[in-house]
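Hallway conversation turned thread

IA: we were arguing at lunch whether anyone had actually written out MMPL family transporter end to end. Turns out nobody had. So, for the record, here is the sequence (976 residues) and right after it the C-alpha cells. Reply here if something looks off.
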Amino acid sequence: MSTLLYALGRWSYRHPWRVLVSWLLLLALAGGGAALFMKGTDNSFSIPGTEAQEGIQLLDRSFPQASGTSAQLVIVAADGDQVDEEPYAGAIDDTVAHLEDLDGVIAVTDPFNEMVTGMVSDDESAAIIRLQFDGQATDVSDETKAGLEDVAHDLRDTLPEGSQVAMGGDLFSTSVPALSLIEAVGVLIALFVLIVTFRSFAVAWFPLVSALIGVGLAIALIYVSTAFASISSTTPMLAIMLGLAVGIDYALFIVARHQDQVRAGVDPEESAARATGTAGSAVVFAGVTVLIALIGLGFAGIPFLTTMGIAAAVAVAIAVVVAITLTPALLGFAKDRVAGWGHGRKARGIALRGRRSSAADAHETGTDETGTDGSGVEGDAAVPTSPAAAPAVATTKKTNRWVMLVTRHPWVTTIAVVLTLGVMAIPAASLALALPNAGQQPESSQARQAYDLTAEHFGPGANGPLIMTGTIVTSTDPLGLMEDLADEIEQVPGVKEVALATPNETADTGLIQIVPETAPDDPATAELVRDLRALAPELEDEYGVELLVTGFTAVGIDISDRLGAALLPFGVFVVGLSLVLLMIVFRSVWVPIKAALGYLLSVLAAFGVVAAVFEWGWGAELLHVDKTGPVISFMPIILMGVLFGLAMDYEVFLVSRMREDYVHARRAAAEHSTRSRRDIAVGAVRSGFTASARVVTAAAIIMFAVFAAFVPEGDSSIKPIALGLAVGIAVDAFLVRMTLVPAVMALLGDKAWWMPRWLERILPHFDIEGEAVERELSLADWPEPHATAAVVGDGVAVRADGGGSAGEVVLYDDASFRLEPGGTLIATGDARAARAFALTIAARIAPTDGRLRVAGHLLPERAAWVRAHVGLALLGDGEDRVAALRRALAGKTTLVVVEGVDALDAAERDQAAAVLRDAASALRASDDDARLTLVVTSRTESAALALLADAHRPDVTSIALRSATPQTTTTAEVNA
C-alpha cells in the first residue's frame, strides 16, 4: 500500500493540472447529473418486519383513506368565544369544503361530525380539522402544501382578531435541514487553525480546498442517487459534516508531514511522494475504519439508516481518495514554497526533529531518541534552537512538558481522567430517543405553533394519535364490533379517548383511532403502545379480530426500539473491530484494549453531555435548543460509528510514533546502552507524543469546530448529533488520547508492546506508517547505485508456522546470491525448500528475513509488479509440465522461475530445452539487448545442469538452500 501511494504521490506532484482538472470535471459532471436527475429527499420512515409497518400495509390495501400521511388545521377562538358559534362555525364549514377540493386530499374530518369525538376541545374554545392524504408525506406535492397554507391564511383573515390558526400534523412533522452562515464559521475556524499550524497562508488553503471539492462531489452524487433511492434530508447534512471534518484532517496529515520534511531539507517532490506514502497510508487506514463503522449502521436493519450510513461512507471514501491524490497535486503547485514563515531557503537546512530521528541527531542535541538524556534522566526533548524554528520550539516544549507531567504521575492522571469522564457520563442514563416531530421545530414554525396549540387545548397526545387496525371480514355486526373494541381500548391506562372507531366501506377492515394522554415522544406513549400490543391477543380471543398497532407515532416508537436493540451488537462490533484492527497495526494486546476502553469512555461522555443539554436543559438556551426532550433515535448509533473511526485516527497517529521510537530506541540500546526496557518504553511515549501532538491537536480543533458549527442554528435532527460529535472529539482527543493514553502507556512500560507469538503469526500485517517506503528509501542504493543485477539477495530466509507444537519452521535460511541479466541461477535443496525459494523469487510468498531485489524491484514491497512481470513454472506437481513452462514464458517476459526441473523425464527435458531455446531466440529477435534470465530449482544440481546444457545456457551460478529445521511442512502447504 505505502509503495503504491508513494508512486501515486510522486505522479500527482508532477502532474498537478491533470489531477486538479480531473477532480473539477468529476465535480461538474456530478453536479450536472444532480441538477438533471435528483428527485428530492424523502423523510418518510419505514421499518420492515415490524407490527407498525405491517399495519400500514394493511391500511394501504383495504383502508386507503386512513393509510396515508395526515395533517391538521388547529383553530383557536379569541378569548370568550366558542368555535361552535358564528362566525367560527360557518368559517370552519367553508374551510372544510375548500380543503376537500385540494389535489391529494382524500378525506377531511369535520370537527362537528357526529361520528367523531375529540375534534372540539372540552371548553369548546378550539377545534381541529383533520386531513388525510393519498400516500406518504413525500408524495404530497408542493402545490398541495401551498394550497393548504393559502386556506389557513384565508381562514386566519376571516376569523375575529385574537383567534389563532395553524397548520400542522404528520405532514409537517419533519423539517428539511439547510446550511446557514453559522456553519461557515466552522470552516473559517478551521482555516485559522490551519494558518497557525502551517504558518503559511498558501499551504493553509490546501486541506480546505481538498475537503470542499470532496464534499461537493459527495453531495452531488447523493442527490443523483435520489433518482433511484430514498434519501432522507438528514443524510446530505451528515455527509457534509463528516466530509468536511475528515477531508480537512486527512489532507492536514499529509501536508504537515510534507512541510516537516521540506523544512528538514528533503527535495519537495521526493517529500510529497514520501508524505503520501507514509501519512497517506495512515489516512487510508483511518478512512477504512470510518467506512466500516458507517456501513455497520446496517446492523439496525432499518433501510433509511443503512442508506444514511452508505451515503456518509461514500463521502468519507471520496475524502480519502481526494486527500491522497489532490493534496500532493496542490503541493506540486506550491513547489518549494511550503516551509512557512521563518522557514525560508536559509532555514531549510536546519534539521528540525522529524519523523525519523537519527542517533547522530540525538548525539548533537545531547539527548537520545526517547526524549531523555543518554543516562536516562528525564528532560526536555531535543528541539532546535534556531530563531527560524522558534515557533516549533515553543510548541514542542509545551507538549513535552505536558507529557512529562502526565507520565511522571500516571496513576493520578489515569484516575483523574476516568473520574472526570465518569461524571460527564452520568446524564446518559436519562437519554431518551424518538423520531423528530413538529414539537422540536423552532417556535417561529407554523407546524410548531400547531403542535403547541393542539397540546394546550386537546392534550399532548392529540399530536400523535395511534391507530389499531385489523381484518373484520367474519363479523356479522361490524359497527357493533368496532364499538365494543373501542370500549375495551378506552379502559387501557394511558388512553385519553378513542376519537374514531369505524369499519371501512366494504366492512372487511376496522380502524380505531386512539388519542394517548402523553406526547408522541414521551416514554409513556411507547409504554402504551406495548400495552396495547399486549392486549391484542386477549381481544382476538374474545372478538376474533387480530389487531395491529400502527400510525406515524407507532412507527417512530418501533424505529427507536429497533435502534435501541441494535446498540449492543453494534457496540460489540465496533469495539471488537477496533481490537482486531489495532492489534494488526501495533502488534500488541494491551494497546488495543486501552484504545477500546478509551473509546467507550469518550462515547459515554458524549452521550452524557447530549442528555444534559437536551434532557436536563443545561445550556439549552445558549445552544438554541427550542425544546428539551428525547433526541433523534439514530443519534447514538451514528455517534458511536463516526466517533469510532475518528478516535482510531488519533490513536494511530499518536501511538504509531510511540511504537516507532520504542523499536528504534531498543535497537540502539541493545548496542551501546544499559538502560532498562521500561525506561526505553516510557521515553518512547514521551518522544512519540512530542513529535505527533501538534498535528493531532490541530486536527482535533478543526473537527471540533466543524461539528460545533452545526449546533447553534442546526436542524433539530442534526443538532444533537453535531453536539455529540463535537464533545466526543474534544474528549477523545484531549482527555483520552493526549492525557489518558500516555499515562496508561507509562504504567504499562515495555509490556504495552507484548503479544503472544501464536497471535503474532496469524495476524496479517498492515503497513500503517509507510515502513515499506522507508525501507525502499533506505535500500535505494543497494546492492550499489544503478545496479544491473536481475536478481540479487542477501541473507534471504523464509519461515512458516509448523502447526501444533512444531512451532516455527525454517524453510530455507541465509540465502545470498546474485544473477545478472541473461544468466541462470540454480538453487538446490529439498522439495520444500526449492518450492519456497521459487515462490519467493516470483513474489508469491514474502521473505521473512534478508534483502531481495528482483528485476530492479525490492521485495516484498513491489510484489505486485514482480508477480505481473516474472513468469513462474511449477513443474513439480503438474501433469503437462512442458505446457506450464510455455505459459510461464508467454508475453516475452525476460525473467522466468522454473521450479522442480528434476520432475522432468528424458522426453520432457528435451521438449523443455527446446522451449527455452525458442524463447531466448524470440527475445533476441524482438530486441537485440533482451536476454532471457532463468532461476531454476531442483533437488539435485545434475538434473538442472542437464536441462540447461540442452537449452544452450552455459552461464550458470549455483547455490545450495539450507533448511535449518526438520521437514514438517509439506510442499503443498508451502505452495498455499
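OS: looked through it. Residues 789-975 form a domain with the Rossmann fold fold (CATH 3.40.50.300).
IA: good, adding that to the notes. The CA atoms of residues 214 and 322 lie 6 Å apart.
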